[in-house]
């Protein structure tokens, strides 16, 4: 029970209201009084106001608030010059429209709305706060909850939602009266328009004399409204789709039923993973089952998107099955669907899908005793959507030729670049104009009566296959932040800019006095060719007793990136730098990465150094950590360092130190391998770009030299040493990285392939057993087979992840791939935020400086780790997508090349071939291989038999070496350039 006590004026001029709550615990009553203070000096932030600038007081830093609302806002015939007040749902559903540069300037955001948005969607809240900081958009937050003139108490029996609606209306009314009374007489009348899609709320506003309109009506009445209507999301009173002839998906269970089912073990939750080869099949891993649950068919997938957090219900054992062995693509299954309402009976389940599901059911009944049978389930609820901006292109088939020049709004389908996602239906007046363009769309909803999700157009990126459009598309697809750094971020950099230098005297600042002067050490860096963001360097020196002093020196980024600054917040948000073929998307501004922090040769630089004493067998005798100053003697590429080491005529101390580092690194690597470290592989290639035209030239497989391993071993050793130190100092919040052991089920199919095709097997008893068994899997007739197997084994592994040490017990810290009990990332703070945190924690651990609260709080550290895990994964995907795009461009000029390939997957209607030279995988469908009617798929032996185009009988199997002809084509569905392979 709660009671609101009327307001009373305090001597200080503030007003206070009190809420009295009566709480009952164990039969006893407790009275709780909550006080809410109100002010009379909260400004309106309008430049047209004559009163607020006179009453407002400066803050603790003697700063006055910025009056951002224009005294000459946008004019519309219906509204005149006006400011806009937004409802919470408008912000939540139309945030990308609010961000549009051609709409929504001079917007008042009530504190009530801001807090509601924060509670319902923190990502959208972050975007709204960014708008409020933008000088161009002029969004002003008005603290109506603390203003005497606008605060409203909750009435008896009034819901919180109704109270908040009333508070927003009160805010509108206050602004209109305030501006009428205090507007500068030289300024034209300014009205206040309340934009809200809740008709009841609008009617209440109109009854109070407030100008109110729905989003679609407001946009329609703007001077550029016709151009903006495509951006309006599908919501109440907005453009809508009818589904009179469409059947219905199953309804989701109620929240209470979902929570109860999860609690009592009848329902399970996890993340849905849709197959990239079969859009009708998804899997979800849950702890209760060794094998993933299979979700088969559109009805059971029940409107889920790849990556959604879902709740599933188990199907009867009679419906359990093996994973599908058929390639199923949406464009083939639903080619005749029409986007326009009422044009065709867009049933949820098409005849082709029914046929597919019938075949799968028949297969399941004949495989009841198979060891590959997996549980099946259906989705009964979605707890968290993975929706984001999606990139695709309008399907030509969904836009009639006779309507392409019309400006009338029409429905059309957008096919997304990600094949695991469904096409999206949007309504637009620009369908003809947008054909052939990469466009960005947002999803608004997926009603149970609609076969497809519904969304709206956001923006065009440019022509398909143009470098700019394709690059921006892959960055958006992988949620990479690529906008320029803001003014506030850049203001955190040293004012001297490129002229900044390490102080020459070390007896000034107390922190500089704590630094070790290592400028006499023969330090050098070894990096890829052309590297400018050099964040690591090394040195080695033999000691009088015959042992070795070895140092790893890491760029001291935290000297410039201080906690709780805009620069730190931006680095934490971006999480990592992203490396594309033709560019680098920096985590930190270029001035830091390529200049002030980069350990360039011949100049003094701040560093964080790990210094070991090692014996001649590379055993650690002693470890020390120091903030330091170094002066690198040389910046080598891997190739140049290797040449110098191999050149016997080079006998200078720097070269001798490099030779010692190489010798010690070989012993360190052997120690790791003896402990069970894995030597895995991935098909990594390098695209050479023309230095003048920036066109892709040729592709080659990356060659690894001994110097690559030299650097890697000492970086690994530094990371392990730092991990131990920060864990000892901060056992609950140390920033660590773990790599879990893979479950045996991950390797079941690969092991079965090896047993059947090669009479080999992989052991999973330990990482050492796995490493040894991989070494034994050698085919004397095919030198590449072992590399191929390591590539396939890598895909069966678990993903490594960052975590604060308090999340797991020590035994779970283990990095399986490196065979290390504890590990972190410390050696690349220019390009990884994890390393920035590790630097701060290490500095505190050695007593150099105190540690910020955000890195001592377990909950905050969990949020940091969650973000950087996502950013790290997305950066990897974006880098691979960039290589894939440029390899496609190279192949355009090398059509009909014949290359060696290896079959890595066999389906009942096609095969997947890996081409090592280009690092690409290509799908060859059965109709291209030969006669589909003659084909026989042997699931047990992973082989496919068929008659080829000449009528000759052929059988092909997994691991088989084949020659393929490569053509570069545009995927007819996604318009992505891909390799089309043909068996030779």
In a nutshell, what does this entry contain?
By secondary structure, this protein is of the alpha+beta class.
What's the tally of helices?
28
Poorly predicted segments: 1-6, 9-13, 236-240
Please outline the major beta sheet. 6 strands, mixed
Estimate the strand proportion. Answer: 25-35%
Q: Could you tell me how far the N terminus lies from the C terminus, measured between alpha carbons in angstroms?
A: 80 Å
Q: How would you describe this protein?
A:
This is Ribosomal RNA-processing protein 44. The longest helix has 35 residues, at 858-892. Helix 21 crosses helix 22 (706-729). The N and C termini lie far apart (80 Å). Among the domains are: 2-37; 39-231, Rossmann fold (3-Layer(aba) Sandwich), CATH 3.40.50.1010; 487-735 and 818-878, no CATH class; 894-983, Nucleic acid-binding proteins (OB fold (Dihydrolipoamide Acetyltransferase, E2P)). The model is unreliable at 1-6, 9-13 and 236-240 (pLDDT under 50). By secondary structure, the chain is α+β, with helices and mostly antiparallel strands. The strands form 12 sheets. Strands 4, 5, 6, 7, 8 and 9 form a 6-stranded mixed beta sheet that branches. The chain has 28 helices and 41 strands.
Any key phrases for this structure?
about 1000 residues; alpha+beta; Rossmann fold; 6-stranded mixed beta sheet; 5-stranded antiparallel beta sheet; about 30% helix
Structural topology:
Blueprint: E1 2-9, E2 15-25, E3 28-38, H1 52-55, E4 75-76, E5 80-86, H2 88-93, H3 95-98, E6 107-110, H4 111-120, H5 122-132, E7 139-142, H6 160-182, E8 191-195, H7 199-207, E9 211-213, H8 215-220, H9 225-228, H10 255-264, E10 267-271, E11 273-274, E12 281-284, E13 293-296, H11 298-301, E14 309-314, H12 330-333, H13 351-366, E15 377-384, E16 390-394, E17 410-416, E18 424-428, H14 431-434, E19 437-445, E20 454-463, H15 467-477, H16 487-490, H17 510-513, E21 516-517, E22 524-527, E23 536-542, E24 548-555, H18 566-574, E25 578-579, E26 584-585, H19 590-596, E27 604-614, E28 620-631, E29 634-637, H20 638-646, H21 653-675, E30 685-689, E31 696-701, H22 706-729, E32 735-738, H23 748-758, H24 767-776, H25 785-794, E33 801-804, H26 833-845, H27 858-892, E34 897-907, E35 910-915, E36 920-925, H28 926-929, E37 930-938, E38 943-948, E39 953-957, E40 961-970, E41 977-983
Parallel strand pairs: 5-6, 5-8, 6-7, 8-9, 21-28, 22-29
Antiparallel strand pairs: 1-2, 2-3, 4-5, 10-14, 11-12, 12-13, 14-15, 16-17, 16-19, 17-18, 19-20, 23-24, 24-27, 25-26, 27-28, 30-31, 32-33, 34-35, 34-40, 35-36, 37-38, 38-39, 40-41
Helix pairs in contact: 4-5, 15-27, 21-22, 22-26
Cofactor: Mg(2+)
GO molecular function: 3'-5'-RNA exonuclease activity; endonuclease activity; RNA binding
Domain RNB: 515-848
């Amino acid at each position: 029970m709660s009671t609101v006590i009327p307001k009373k004026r305090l001597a200080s001029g503030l007003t206070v209201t009190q809420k009295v709550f009566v709480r009952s615990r164990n039969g006893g009553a407790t009275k709780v009084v909550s006080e809410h203070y109100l002010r009379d000096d909260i400004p309106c932030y309008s430049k047209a106001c004559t009163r607020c600038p006179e009453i407002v007081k400066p803050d603790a830093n003697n700063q006055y608030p910025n009056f951002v609302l224009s005294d000459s806002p946008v004019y519309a015939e219906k509204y005149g010059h006006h400011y806009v007040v937004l409802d919470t749902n408008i912000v939540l559903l139309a945030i990308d429209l609010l961000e549009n540069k051609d709409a929504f300037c001079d917007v008042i955001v009530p504190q009530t709305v801001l807090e509601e948005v924060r509670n319902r969607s923190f990502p959208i809240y972050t975007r709204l706060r960014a708008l409020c900081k933008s000088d161009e958009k002029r969004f002003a937050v008005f603290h109506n909850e603390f203003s005497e003139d606008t605060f409203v108490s909750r009435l008896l029996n009034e819901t919180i939602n109704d109270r908040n609606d009333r508070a927003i209306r009160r805010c509108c009314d206050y602004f209109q009266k305030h501006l009428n009374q205090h507007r500068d007489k030289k300024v034209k009348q300014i009205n206040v328009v309340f934009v809200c899609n809740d008709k009841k709320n609008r009617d209440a506003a109109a009854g109070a004399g407030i100008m109110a309109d729905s989003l679609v009506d407001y946009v329609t009445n703007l001077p550029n409204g016709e151009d903006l209507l495509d951006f309006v999301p599908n919501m109440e009173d907005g453009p809508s789709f009818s589904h009179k002839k469409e059947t219905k998906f199953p309804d989701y269970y109620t929240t209470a039923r979902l929570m109860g089912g999860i609690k009592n073990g009848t329902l399970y939750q996890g993340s849905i993973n849709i197959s990239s080869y079969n859009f009708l099949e998804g899997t979800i891993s849950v702890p209760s089952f060794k094998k993933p649950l299979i979700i088969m068919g559109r009805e059971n997938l029940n409107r889920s998107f790849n990556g959604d957090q879902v709740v599933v219900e188990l199907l009867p054992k009679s419906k359990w099955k093996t994973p599908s062995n058929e390639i199923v693509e949406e464009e083939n299954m639903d080619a005749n669907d029409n986007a326009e309402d009422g044009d065709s009976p867009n049933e949820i389940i098409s005849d082709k899908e029914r046929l597919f599901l019938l075949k799968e059911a028949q297969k399941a009944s004949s495989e009841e005793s198979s060891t590959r049978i997996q549980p099946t389930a259906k989705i009964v609820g979605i707890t968290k959507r993975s929706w984001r901006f999606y990139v695709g292109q309008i399907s030509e088939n969904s836009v009639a030729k006779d309507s392409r020049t019309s400006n009338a709004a029409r429905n059309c389908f957008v096919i997304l670049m990600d094949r695991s996602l469904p096409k999206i239906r949007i309504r637009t007046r620009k369908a003809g104009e947008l054909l052939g363009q990469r466009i960005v769309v947002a999803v608004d909803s997926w009603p149970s009566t609609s076969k497809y999700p519904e969304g709206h157009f956001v923006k065009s990126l440019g022509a398909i296959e143009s470098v700019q459009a394709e690059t921006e598309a892959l960055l958006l697809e992988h949620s990479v932040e690529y906008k320029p750094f803001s003014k506030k971020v850049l203001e955190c950099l040293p004012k001297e800019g490129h002229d900044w230098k390490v102080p020459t005297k070390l007896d000034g600042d107390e922190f500089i006095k704590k630094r070790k002067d290592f400028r006499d050490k023969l330090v050098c860096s070894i990096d890829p060719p052309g590297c400018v963001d050099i964040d690591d360097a090394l040195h080695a020196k033999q000691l009088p007793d015959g042992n070795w002093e070895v140092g790893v020196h890491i760029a001291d980024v935290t000297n410039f990136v201080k906690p709780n600054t805009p620069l730190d917040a931006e680095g934490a948000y971006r999480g990592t730098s992203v490396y594309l073929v033709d560019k680098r998307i920096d985590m930190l501004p270029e001035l830091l990465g390529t200049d002030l922090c980069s350990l360039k040769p011949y100049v003094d630089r701040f560093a964080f150094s790990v210094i070991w004493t090692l014996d001649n067998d590379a055993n650690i005798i002693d470890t020390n950590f120091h903030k330091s100053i170094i002066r690198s003697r040389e910046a080598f590429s891997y190739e140049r360092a290797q040449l110098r080491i191999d050149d016997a005529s080079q006998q200078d101390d720097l070269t001798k130190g490099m030779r010692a580092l190489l010798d010690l690194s070989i012993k360190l690597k052997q120690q790791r391998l003896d402990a069970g470290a894995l030597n895995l592989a991935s098909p990594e290639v390098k695209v050479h770009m023309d230095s003048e035209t920036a066109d892709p030239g040729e592709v080659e497989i990356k060659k690894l030299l001994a110097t690559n391993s030299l650097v890697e071993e000492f970086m690994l050793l530094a990371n392990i040493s730092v991990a131990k130190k920060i864990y000892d100092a901060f056992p609950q919040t140390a920033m660590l990285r773990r790599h879990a052991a893979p479950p045996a089920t991950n390797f079941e199919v690969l092991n079965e392939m090896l047993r059947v095709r090669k009479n080999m097997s992989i052991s999973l008893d330990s990482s050492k057993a796995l490493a040894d068994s991989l070494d034994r899997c050698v085919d004397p007739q095919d030198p590449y087979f072992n590399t191929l197997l390591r590539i396939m084994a890598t895909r069966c592994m678990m993903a490594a992840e960052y975590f604060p040490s308090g999340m797991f017990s020590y035994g779970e810290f283990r990095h399986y791939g490196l065979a290390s009990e504890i590990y972190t990332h410390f050696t690349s703070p220019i390009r990884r935020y994890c390393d920035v945190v590790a630097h701060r924690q290490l500095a505190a651990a050695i007593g150099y400086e105190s540690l910020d609260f955000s890195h001592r709080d377990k909950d905050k550290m969990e949020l940091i780790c969650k973000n950087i895990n996502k950013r790290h994964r997305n950066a990897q995907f974006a880098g691979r997508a960039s290589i894939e795009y440029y390899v496609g461009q190279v192949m355009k000029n090398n059509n009909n090349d014949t290359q060696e390939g290896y079959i890595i997957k066999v389906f009942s209607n096609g095969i997947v071939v890996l081409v090592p030279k280009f690092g690409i995988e290509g799908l060859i469908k059965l109709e291209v291989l030969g006669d589909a009617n003659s084909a026989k798929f042997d699931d047990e032996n992973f082989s496919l038999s068929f008659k080829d185009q000449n009528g000759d009988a052929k059988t092909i199997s997994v691991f088989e070496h084949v020659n393929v002809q490569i053509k570069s084509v545009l995927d007819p569905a996604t318009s992505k350039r891909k390799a089309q392979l043909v068996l030779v």
